[in-house]
């Protein structure tokens, strides 16, 4: 299935990683990573840096699945607000999940600084808008619980929101710990680096269609009959991981995104913040390094790719109206638009680690709106698991929670 359609901005902005290297013969490796997007590339990075032999396999051109359709925002906030998550998973687990997500942004920044790859990573503020009076009540509760647990947050009332961000609304939560980047450039930059520095084997256009558990590992079978023998396998294939899961653990949604034509930098909103809101489905917006505006949302339950794609033109109009509701004075002319499919979970948390009873098959499933930060956590947890290092995040994000 096509994970996205339309004209995804990152594929236009960047030179395509034109890499064609299907697996031609049987292959043996310690760790096989399925998926070459931002999750798989971060897993490969952590394993390569730890000296663990690994290889990456993808059925598509490298990093052209969900990663190419990402709007690449990095926030410590999770789709489910902390005050509501505590009711779902318990206060201790919810608070640790939020703190882990906060730390993940810094960890991502340090990864790219260390390897001297710049995927347009930039620290920006985040403004979480109350869409209405009900949303304001949610933000008031959320503010209190974040303050209680030492999470960075400011409360903006209506006057402060207008004075500081030129937005008319009931109020907002703000923090200065968010970031944004070019997700496609990040994934391909990581893979290029480790191909050069660590001889990372990377196989494109190699579809894993079946697997067989063996004593001491797995045999993965490709669509054209090749066998990959490995001690461990990491599933970093997003919602396409379903063939490896005993049961479905996520819901599928369709989402929509637009990029504007460039404008003068002086025309953009204050601080070029990440802006999102409490309404469901929520609307969000960011800027790009070339002074475009990227907006998205209008999520609906996924039925099939054809229905998702048919809605694109209508969703473009709705997203344009949403933007003009917030910043009517900023010119916004659509230059590119796309739609994609993503997964979400009941509690807003990803699934990381082994399925109970499958000790050698690890899942790195960064479901939800904060998939990139979850991907960093997954890469670290899986590396630690392979090295015999205890990591309490495995319990927080594991299948047994």
TrEMBL record:
InterPro entries recorded: FAD-dep_OxRdtase (IPR006076), FAD/NAD-bd_sf (IPR036188)
Domain FAD dependent oxidoreductase: 30-382
A GO CC annotation given for this chain: cytoplasm
Pfam families: DAO
Gene3D superfamilies: D-Amino Acid Oxidase, subunit A, domain 2 (3.30.9.10), FAD/NAD(P)-binding domain (3.50.50.60)
TM region(s), chain numbering: none
Highest rank taxon of the organism: Bacteria
Protein name: Glycine/D-amino acid oxidase
Organism annotation: Parapedobacter koreensis
């Amino acid at each position: 299935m096509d994970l996205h359609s339309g004209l995804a901005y990152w594929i236009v902005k960047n030179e395509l990683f034109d890499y064609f290297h299907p697996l031609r013969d049987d292959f043996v490796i310690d760790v096989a990573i399925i998926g070459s997007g931002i999750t798989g590339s971060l897993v490969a990075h952590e394993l390569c840096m730890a000296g663990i032999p690994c290889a990456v396999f993808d059925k598509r051109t490298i990093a052209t699945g969900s990663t190419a359709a990402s709007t690449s925002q990095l926030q410590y906030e999770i789709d489910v607000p902390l005050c509501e998550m505590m009711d779902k998973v318990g206060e201790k687990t919810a608070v640790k999940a939020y703190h882990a997500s906060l730390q993940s942004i810094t960890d991502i920044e340090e990864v790219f600084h260390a390897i001297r790859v710049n995927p347009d990573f930039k620290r920006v503020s985040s403004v979480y808008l109350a869409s209405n009076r009900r949303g304001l009540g949610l933000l008031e509760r959320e503010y209190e619980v974040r303050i209680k647990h030492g999470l960075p947050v400011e409360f903006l009332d209506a006057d402060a929101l207008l004075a500081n961000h030129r937005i008319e609304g009931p109020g907002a939560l703000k923090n200065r710990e968010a970031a944004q980047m070019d997700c496609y450039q990040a994934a391909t930059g990581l893979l290029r680096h480790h191909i050069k520095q660590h001889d990372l084997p990377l196989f494109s256009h190699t579809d894993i269609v079946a697997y067989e558990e063996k004593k001491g590992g797995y045999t993965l079978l490709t669509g054209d009959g090749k066998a990959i023998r490995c001690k461990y396998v990491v599933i970093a294939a997003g919602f396409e991981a379903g063939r490896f899961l005993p049961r479905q653990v996520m819901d599928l949604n369709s989402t929509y995104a637009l990029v504007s034509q460039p404008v003068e930098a002086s025309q953009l909103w204050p601080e070029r913040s990440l802006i999102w809101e409490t309404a469901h489905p929520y609307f969000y917006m960011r800027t790009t390094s070339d002074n475009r505006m990227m907006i998205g949302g209008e999520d609906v339950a996924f039925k099939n790719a054809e229905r998702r794609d048919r809605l694109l033109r209508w969703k473009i109009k709705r997203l344009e109206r949403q933007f003009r509701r917030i910043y009517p004075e900023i010119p916004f002319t659509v230059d590119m638009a796309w739609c994609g499919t993503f997964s979400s979970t009941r509690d807003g948390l990803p699934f990381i680690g082994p399925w109970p009873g499958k000790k050698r098959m690890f899942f790195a499933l960064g479901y939800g709106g904060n998939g990139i930060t979850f991907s960093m956590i997954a890469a670290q947890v899986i590396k630690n698991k392979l090295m015999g290092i205890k990591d309490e995040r495995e319990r927080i994000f594991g299948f047994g929670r």
